[in-house]
Amino acid sequence: MIRRFHVVAIPIRIVVNNFGDHNPDGRMYVLKENEEKVKKLVRQNPFTPVELVQPLTIRANEGDVVEILFENQLPFATGMHFQESDYDPRTSDGSNAGFNPSSLAECGETVLYTIHATTEGIHFFTDMGNVSSTEQGSSLQGLFGTLIVERRGSWWTDPVTGGPIESGVFADIHNPFLPSFREYAWFFNDEMEVNDLTGNRPLNPVTNQEAESFHGVNYRFEPLGNRKRLIEEGIVSPELDGEEVHHDSWVFGDPATPILRGYRGDPAVIRLIHGAAKETHVFHYHAHQWLRDPSNERSEVVDAQAISPQSHYDVWPLYGLGSLPGSIGDAIIHCHLYPHFEAGMWGINRIFDTLQDGSQCYPNGIPIAALQPLPDRPCPPKPTPERPGFPNFIPGKVGCKAPRPPLGIVGGREMTELERNAAVPNARPGAVFVDACLGNPVVVEFNVSLIELPIIYNRQGWYDPKGRIYVLDEEIDDVLSGRKEPEPLTLHIPASSCIRMNFTNRLPHILDGDAFQLVTRTYENAFHVHFVKFDILVADGASVGWNYDSSVLPGETIRYEWYADTELKAFFFHDHLFPVSHQQHGVFGTSVIQPRFSRTFDSRTGEEVFHGTQVTVQNPLIPDYRDFSLFIQDFAFLFDKNGCPIQPPPFPGSSEDPGVFAVNYKNEPLQFRLGEDCDPAYSFSSYVSGDPVTPILMAYEGDPIRIRLLQGSHEESHAFNLHGLRWPLERPDNDSILTSQHHIGISESFTLEMEIPRAGDYLYAFEDEEDVWLGTWGLIRAFDEEVPDLIPLTDRPLPPPRTQPLPKVTGKPPKLADPLCSLPPLAPLNAPIRRYSVVAIQTPIVYNKYGDHDPFGIVFALEEDVEDILCGRKNPEPLVLRGNQGDLVEVTLTSMLEFEKFPFQDGIHPYPPVKEQAFYPPSLRISLHPNLLDYDVRTSSGNTVGFNPDQTVGPGERITYRWYVFSNVGTCAMWDVADLRNHRSFGAFGAFIAEPRFTSNYLDPHTLQPIRTGTSAVIEHPLFGRFREFVLVMHDGVRLEDKNGHVIIDPLAGVIPQADLDDEVDTYDFGSRGFNYRSERLINRYREHPVLADLFSSKVFGDPATPVFEAYPGEPVFIRLTIPSERRRAHTFHLHGHNWKFDPRDVDSRIVSYVGHMVAGDAQDLPLIGGAGGTFNFPGDYLYRSGNIRWDIEQGMWGIFRVHPCIQPHLPRLEDS
Amino acid sequence: MVTPNSNLNSQSVDINRIHDTALVNHFTENIGRRAFLLTPSYPFMFIGEIIDVMEDMVELCVETTHFSQLENRNWFIHIHNIEVFYIETPDGPCIPELRDDL
């Protein structure tokens, strides 16, 4: 079927909330038939949101051909680039890339796109004509939308009228063979221009400084500042503080942001899209869970999911709206990054229990729009005076904060008559309107309080004078008296339990002011939980919409009830009333829902316990394991031992990236671990500086372990890396790929399950440069002999008695490792050996033809290539090593580093910057660490960690690492761990590719002769034939100089047309970026030819300096993608016109055209569906690039994948001999 | 005419029949004993007493499954759906006692 749309790109004023905040320079896509209407409505309503001003959402069915007549009314060339779709790039890419003809439309012109809607799901579209990251750009100002492809045979109706619709973010979807469902398109976007009613940038009413930039949903945002101003002006309850009622409709009425409406139990999907431009958000949906990969039933269940720019997910809440218990009420949906949440990035899922036919009103008199019941579901009952339905049975008072729930607060109130009519027969504290526990399961009960106390974070005396933590009531005295070290509260609960929580607020009324924060009256707080099932109205631990305020005042106790229906990951908990103000002080914890029938024990004493970040779990059916909980935290507001604030913001109350980082209320900054020799290579060595104060997770060799990875606070992405171990990405799925790295954002929770094959110290690190610099690392220590402080697992052989004394701190570097004395744990004796000789050298690297270069490059190279590189015959590219499954790879590393060739010999590395700059001189030692491969961590991990021997090499030394390719795990990142501050961003990284077993040859793509290294190769296999392999090493944090030798201060130096001097650049945004030591910074092209629409054109500029990978239509292609280095900013990778499986090993996995939130250590394999040219094998030039408009694409993170239509002399076909 | 493939098929049917019959007989012989079963479909795990065997369906008085709401009732489980099982006999190890309240 052919569907036709006439889409217009128009300039539009976007009013983003009811306070008149607006973007005067908005841009959006709209259907032609709505163009005049929307323009007229906007003219008539200059300070009121207009519903038609929303990201364009159109629909088609699987298998349809969609013809878009695109008309451009913007003053620059624009287009529509579709992700996930199949199309001919020469006509329908919506770009002007490479040697393709332009498929952009100039102002006033039209262009016709033909899009094949091959796969069900989100086909996000955006503009590639103007990728400026400024307010003169297109995406940043709102120019994005989506085509949603439904199942074949579907149709869609308006949820209010039931009539047909052509576009719109909300629709009801129907299919003759499938249940009808609600569909809600939810577009995050950030950094959009916003002015207030007066035409000035909005101010924060507390600090009186410029407010946080726009962070919204569907072109709307509802910031705390606006609502707080109403309190300050006395328009609503002046006794309130603000944050606690930010989401309270009783006080303020409903927000301008989306309200996703449905009836209890309705099947629904949120089409979650990150439209633009910079931040990686964490989407969190209260009281609901969904599969991370909805087409894979064995995928992880999540309730918070990080999403980076130009990426998207389908969120299908399990059990439909209201989840398993069928809760009703308002479930808030928000970005969990608190500064974004405060800035207004939230909306509501409103679940009704009575029919809404348009005749009802909310308590404030606003009519409730009609909502058609889904045709295949029972019609909800009509409201009656006795049973008015949500929200009209709640005894609230408009203009005042929400009432407290009945029954829940100790000493509190009973139910009103209307509440009793709405309640379940067995209403009880914490479960009034639904029976959350589905009957009468076993009950576990906890008494927990939130308290304030000083917390010391490290041996140098860094401390938080206002630490705020959850503690068990029975441990309050021990924690306050110092007998028990504070740690994030971690409860262990068997699955199938009903959990009753008696929570007491023991905080002082006031969070005192200091260099970080202004005085805040955090007078009430709560216990909000993730994952488990509960009554949203009374047990959410929040104050949302027309719900109750389920928090308590100081000294009060509230009772919640939750149900752990099945084994879950660690579920996150925190306060939801003042989290922006105090979560970074430690207000977070977790409960781990263990397998049913489990018992937990203190790993040191063997005493049965039900809490603790390190426990041993016994279960009668499955193997026993160690259970470790790790919380990363940022925005930690610490003071040094002299009482000076560490990394305070520019002014108190600013959210400009204040404070430092920690793990479980501890950190171990590298600057304090230089030792006597001042050599960074031993920063992780316990011989030199003792064990870190951060958690050391203890086990015996062979023990199964589960790491519960969580982020407690507050705004940023982190890159968890575990050296020497690996786990399945989708834990329930036996077909899952393995990984050694995980991106995490606040409130996400992951369970990493694995076994420790061999004794030794394993480094875990949140390993972007700044995190690890500030101390977010620790150890997993596995013993081969008995130790007194660790009970053995009951179902494993007892560890042998200790014969060797435990190692001790010497203050001296350890002895060199001897990797050839042992085999990797999984390697057989007769494994074939593949040898590489690698040398670390310093050499200038030229990044592009405009003269941008790194004069201080540090690269790994094969010994045979060193001379060519050093004499300039060869511009280096990242080292790519390959091995087959089953190979034992021996890599001999030599260091040729010279102190004089380092840029910052005084030991202060000023750019790209990190927080807490300190003396840390460059090391002449270097190492090579691969992730994912199998090796003995004591000899071949490439780190000198804990009490392991030295695995780095200095000048004149050699070490031969032994790595076993136990499986064809594909891409493995490689990097140096000897000096993460002075080496890695200069190029000390590469990739290892683990190829399938029996691969016969790695060939040069141009000569088809065998090669030893190279980012582009033809891989030959006797069974699979040949495929092309392109290795893309994405990296950032690069210090480049221009052709005149001036340091390029990216990202702002690369902004087109020019940066706004007020642009806030976090430390981790600094530095240049690109692929494979190349960067095609658009600013260079723009200076030569200042036409935005031509910047990707090879016809104008020639091909970019970044790799141009070549193939013929239909040839099998694997892209090996990794990001070994190094900053905390997460990037999206997108390849135009091609798709692959989210999990390449799983046929059930969803189909995507992007990789989201890439941070240090990530490694991906992208087998292109249909091969080169996508499903239809269209020849042409396809862009590969970052999805971050701000600040990646301008800064050179893009290149071209060229699919030739006819044979090229320089490129043999795969079938050629 | 009988092809080699159909020969193979008929042979495999016979083997399957023998296999199924043996299973049915084994469960029938152990009526009244406790059994532990794993199935690939929800709720994956059952522990309980074998009450009866009807054709190729086992009736189990389920004391424990993955999900407590589905316990303390009789389940009819198709023998083909049983991937792993263990039947407690006087001379074998006991199936562990699984209790929520420990």
UniProtKB/TrEMBL annotation, chain A:
GO terms for molecular function: copper ion binding. It comes from the Bacteria. Residues 793-813 are annotated as: Disordered. The keyword Disulfide bond does not apply. Residues 57-152 form the Plastocyanin-like domain. The keyword Magnesium does not apply. This is Multicopper oxidase. It comes from Mesobacillus foraminis.
UniProtKB/TrEMBL annotation, chain B:
It comes from the Bacteria. This is Uncharacterized protein. It comes from Mesobacillus foraminis.
